[in-house]
Design brief:
alpha/beta; 5-stranded mixed sheet; Serine Threonine Protein Phosphatase 5, Tetratricopeptide repeat; elongated; Trna Endonuclease, Chain: A, domain 1; Tetratricopeptide repeat protein; 40 helices
Length: 1111
């Protein structure tokens, strides 16, 4: 946004042309080289001239020259000669006069004694310098004026020895220091100390000529221009990189403009840039080039006619755009035409102000009305107001403008919270306008609103930049959660056009922090937000130099960690295009190539784990990968499909490579995948896609349609959920579920804003999100509906699978001081971001990369290839209770990744709370074949039925793998030896640790039964041991007094039951949850140091530590 005032009284075509105005306004855009006058004079010529001065009768000329040198290098306070030539009546050619200390202290001459002492000077052009110096010194001393020093300057060469002898002799004879300056001294002063101008002016020797002194900016411009022209002349330099060629062609035109090259050079380069953009159908580049050409024609060459011609071309490209940034170019050029007409640079008919203004206003009104893009709409509104200002004649009264100032005040107020609204450029325009508009209280009020808003934005921006810098420091120290907290407070405040670079920097840093925390969807959301912000700048400039390829690399890494092949390929391909376009030196080209190869290697490592069942549908994929420059990925698929034979058939490996060597390469690739913790690849081949996340130990699986809208909504949910809960590991959060399923589905008649509801399917809670097949918004209110829904949805999802023990503390910290909603919602509008990147695409499919003549690879393998190095997950043993205190890092959540922590539990806490487990009961028939029954008695029917329905869905009619653990702990209380506890929970012997899950939490439910004796329990245990199995069933018990009234459903059969005395429970034992510190277990006689004592001590320490560590 710019505003050049067309109504300035001094801006006329004759007295103040546009080029002069722009040079005064923005001198840094013009050449900083200077035209100077230099003197051509050699030392030999000057020496000869000095030697012949006497013959030329030019003694007076020499004296004048010598005085100037003496003033510059000896004493600046010389009295001018007033007597006849040869010393005059004063016996000296010159002498010093007194100068005050205050003035003398500012001199930069080497000896400041000249200010307070009386020095005499004699000048001579005689060949007999000896007799002359003696006579001059004698006469100077003879004046009796008390000279304290005598200088004698001669045009003759005097050797150092001769000079020293004469100086010493005269000093000794007259008692006054004498200094002789000869021709050598004169030549040194002139040539080594910059006195050519004195010699030329005083002696008339040498020739003056004009020269150009290259300024630092021009030197840099010319160097860059020469380098770019050399590249453009190389036909191979831009092969396959048309956008880079267009960028560089426009850059050369702007450099030539800045160097103030002749117009034919500048116009020629602009014409070349436009032609290249047109030839390669780069409309954004073409628009940028024509606009810059029009601007240059007016403000560098004062050519309003050319401006008018180019305006038509800019209008043709921009007028139908709904993007205010494109229309802004017309808005910038239109006031120039108005000014050109006023200054008689252009006729009203040629300028066609009314027609052009009407067309621009119509387009801006359309953009203004599309409030679904609030930043763009408000930008268009501001441009409309500026156009109204530019068309008002100079000299109008203040009242004519007051309505505009009032409307502008409203625009400034509406801009609060709009991140990409170009506030600073609008503010600059208004400040410039303030120089010319009539005085007005309404404008003063606008200006006050403007300054207040600027101050707030600057304050917020400064604080955010400091938080970002501190976040970077935390991230570098491995404190990723502290970094997330700081980034989270910063990013919302940086959402301003003037802090675009800082925002992108913070988004990238926060993405790194989320990735370090094992929160890959949140990392991907922030990486995508950084890329989308970067691409907005590219859309404005058309230059790929405005895209940071490191952002695309971070996006690629996120997609790699999520295993999504189509998205990873898009990020890879864009990164290659941008790096190639930005690479101009060999070093840059080499770096870009190394990045491409490194990303290909990582992608190949992930692809080694491709499911065998997917290969049949990927037979054309190797050819597409080869086109993308990914031979290592292509070779990986070839190997998985047909082994060595497939590789050799495609000439993908050297002939001398051995079979063992081939297998070793892919074994190492599999090992690299495991080391990098890369997931199995998802080629997204089916109509539905499963997106997985783990946060606070809960496994979340979102099943959605394989369409960009459904995927974007699911991605937004997972990313926002991870972002919101990222810093919650150090809070005590009570798990409700160990997994949660989300189903995202489209529905033609769904509301514009997605809808979330929870449903019960087979006893499990399912989150169902319904949305329209395509999301498009007409108004700002509609667009704001998605983030509002997302904020509500992630909170509801969180409270479904976990609940903070202290909800108020959690809310004050995470939602309050950490700005949790800001960091999780502000940048999570994935549908809009994907729309910006992929346009109207409905789906990202590998099929889109195939070509008709791509060869289909034959699948010759009959079974999947297995690496020789068996993956570590298969080698991990079941979890076992450890001995001794737990590792310290277990109590350091700041060092724990969410991906390393999971909850394992068959307990749906919400249903158990609702069902109200009151007791257990037994049914046995010792004289029959009936297996014994263990009933869990609940006070509420429906939730009890739901619990067992979910178990049957999860474990089957028979829990043959014994994943559900039932334990009966006897002798639990010393106060009642018959008391026992029943524990329902996961069987930790069936849970295997993996490299990515090194912390496992579990949830169990405990019920302590307090019978008077153990007769019923003993009978049940006896029957179980005799028959080897039992039936676990839900029962309804209205009250403890009435006893169970009915069995609710068929339950499930089990063959495993743990029965153990409480005193045998040691430290780190899962069954320690049944121990009561206030009523310890029964310990048999003779057990002096039962394991339960250590277990109870550990429980006490853990509770104390947890209490102290809570925020």
């Amino acid at each position: 946004m710019t505003y050049e005032d067309p109504d300035s009284g001094n801006n006329s075509s004759e007295g103040y042309p546009p080029s002069r105005y722009m040079r005064a306004r923005r001198p840094y855009l013009f050449s900083d080289s200077e035209r100077t006058t230099e003197i051509a004079l050699t030392q030999e010529v000057l020496s000869h001239h000095l030697d012949t001065l006497t013959n030329q009768k030019a003694e007076y000329v020499f004296e004048k020259f010598a005085v100037r040198l003496a003033e510059k290098f000896i004493a600046p306070n010389l009295r001018p000669q007033t007597g006849p030539t040869g010393g005059g009546d004063g016996k000296t050619d010159s002498e010093t006069y007194p100068v005050s200390p205050e003035i003398a202290e500012r001199w930069f001459s080497p000896d400041k004694l000249a200010a307070s002492e009386r020095w005499a000077f004699a000048f001579s052009a005689k060949r007999e310098w000896r007799s002359k110096v003696r006579s001059d010194v004698r006469e100077i001393v003879g004046t009796g004026r008390g000279y304290q020093r005598v200088y004698f300057i001669t045009n003759q060469y005097v050797s150092a020895r001769q000079s020293a002898e004469v100086q010493d002799a005269l000093t000794k004879e007259y008692g006054v220091p004498v200094t002789i300056m000869d021709r050598t001294w004169i030549l040194e002063r002139v040539f080594d100390h910059g006195c050519l101008d004195i010699a030329q002016k005083c002696l008339g020797v040498g020739k003056q000529f004009e020269a150009t002194v290259i300024g630092p900016r021009d030197h840099k411009r010319q160097t860059e221009l020469d380098g770019l022209e050399k590249l453009i002349a190389d036909n191979a330099a831009y092969e396959g990189r048309a956008p880079a060629l267009a960028d560089d062609a426009l850059r050369t035109a702007k450099l030539a403009r800045g160097l103030e090259k002749p117009r034919f050079e500048v116009d020629g380069r602009f014409e070349r840039a436009v032609s290249i953009a047109r030839q390669h159908e780069l409309s954004t580049h073409r628009l940028a080039a024509i606009y810059e050409w029009a601007w240059t024609s007016y403000f560098w060459f004062d050519d309003a006619q050319k401006l008018s011609e180019l305006y038509d071309q800019v209008e043709k490209l921009a007028i139908r755009s709904q993007d205010a940034n494109d229309l802004e170019r017309l808005s910038n050029l239109l006031p120039l035409l108005v000014g050109a007409v006023r200054d008689d640079m252009l006729t009203p008919e040629a300028a066609a102000i009314a027609v052009r203004s009407a067309a621009l206003v119509q387009s801006l009104e359309s953009a203004k009305g599309n409030t679904s893009r609030p930043n763009n709409a408000l930008h268009a509104h501001a441009l409309l107001l500026l156009i109204r200002i530019s068309t008002i004649r100079a000299g109008c009264d203040a009242g004519t403008l007051d309505a505009i100032w009032t409307e502008f005040t409203s625009v400034i107020e509406q801009s609060r919270g709009l991140g990409t609204f170009p506030f600073e450029s609008i503010a600059n325009c208004l400040m410039q306008i303030g120089e010319f508009v009539p005085e007005s209280e309404t404008f003063d009020s606008l200006y006050e609103s403007l300054t207040v808003a600027l101050a707030e934005r600057k304050k917020e921006g400064t604080a955010a930049k400091l938080n970002t810098e501190r976040a970077h420091q935390k991230l570098n120290k491995g404190l990723h959660y502290e970094a997330i907290r700081l980034y989270g407070r910063a990013v919302g405040l940086l959402l301003k056009a003037e802090y675009e670079d800082e925002l992108v920097h913070a988004l990238r840093g926060c993405s790194f922090a989320y990735m370090s925390s094992g929160l890959y969807w949140a990392a991907r959301t922030y990486a995508l937000a950084a890329v989308a912000n970067n691409f907005r700048r590219f859309k404005q400039s058309g230059s790929l130099d405005d895209i940071d390829p490191s952002l695309l690399s971070q996006w690629f890494e996120c997609e790699l960690q999520l295993g999504r092949v189509p998205y990873a390929l898009w990020a890879y391909e864009l990164g290659v295009i941008v790096r190639n376009a930005r690479s101009r030196t060999q070093e840059q080209i080499t770096f870009a190539e190394n990045c491409r190869i490194a990303q290909g290697d990582r992608l190949a490592a992930m692809m080694i784990a491709t499911d065998f069942g997917d290969l049949l549908r990927l037979r054309k994929f190797p050819a597409a990968l080869d086109r993308l420059g990914l031979p290592q990925v292509s070779n990986t698929l070839l190997f998985l499909m047909g082994g060595e034979d497939a590789l050799r058939a495609q000439a993908a490996i050297p002939d001398e490579e051995t079979p063992a060597g081939i297998v070793k390469v892919f074994d190492l690739m599999a090992a690299a995948r495991h080391s990098a913790e890369l997931p199995k690849p998802d080629h997204m081949l089916n109509d539905t896609v499963l997106l997985r996340s783990r946060v606070l130990g809960c496994d979340i699986a979102a099943e959605c349609e394989n369409a960009l809208t459904s995927l974007a909504i699911a991605e937004a949910l997972l990313g926002a959920l991870e972002s919101l809960l990222a810093t919650s590991l150090n809070f005590r959060v009570i798990p409700q579920l160990d997994s949660l399923a989300i189903r995202v589905q489209s529905k033609a008649d769904a509301a514009l804003t997605p809808h979330l509801e929870f449903a019960e399917e087979n006893g499990s809670t399912i989150a169902v999100v319904t949305h329209r097949p395509s999301l498009s918004y007409v108004t700002r209110e509609e667009a704001e509906g998605f983030p509002r829904w997302l904020q509500d949805a992630v909170l509801r999802l969180f409270l479904t699978f976990a609940v903070p023990a202290d909800a108020e503390l959690w809310g004050d910290t995470v939602l309050g001081s950490e700005s949790g909603f800001s960091r999780s919602i502000t940048f999570s509008n994935i549908p809009i971001m994907l729309g910006d990147l992929f346009g109207n695409a409905k789906r990202l499919s590998l099929d889109d990369r195939y070509e008709a003549d791509d060869a289909e690879i034959e699948i010759s393998r009959t079974t999947a290839w297995t690496p020789s190095l068996v993956e570590a997950e298969a080698l991990h043993a079941p979890l076992k209770p450890a001995v001794g205190p737990p590792p310290e890092h277990l109590f350091s959540p700041e060092r724990t990744r969410h991906s390393d922590y999971r909850i394992v539990s068959p307990i749906d806490a919400r249903k158990w709370d609702a069902a109200k487990w009151r007791a257990v009961f037994y049914m046995c028939a010792p004289t029959t074949d009936m297996i014994p029954v263990l009933g869990l008695a609940f006070a509420e029917r429906d939730p009890a039925v739901a619990i067992f329905r979910a178990w049957r869905e999860r474990f089957g009619d028979r829990d043959t793998d014994n994943k559900l653990r039932i334990a009966i702990i006897t002798g639990i209380n010393i106060s009642n030896p018959a008391a026992y506890a029943v524990i329902v929970g996961p069987n930790m012997d069936r849970v295997r640790s993996t490299a990515r899950n090194n912390i496992v939490g579990f949830v169990s439910r405990v019920n302590v039964m307090t019978p008077k004796d153990s007769r019923n329990l003993d009978l049940f245990v006896s029957e179980f041991q005799r028959k080897g199995r039992y039936k676990l069933v839900p029962t309804y018990i209205p009250s403890l007094e009435a006893g169970p009234s009915e069995i609710l459903g068929s339950g499930l059969e089990k063959a495993d039951l743990v029965v153990r005395p409480a005193w045998t429970i040691g430290e780190n034992d899962p069954d320690s949850c049944a121990l009561n510190l206030d009523d310890p277990p029964v310990v048999p006689l003779g057990q002096a140091n039962p394991p339960a004592l250590k277990a109870m001590e550990q429980i006490a320490r853990f509770r104390a530590r947890r209490k102290n560590s809570e925020p």
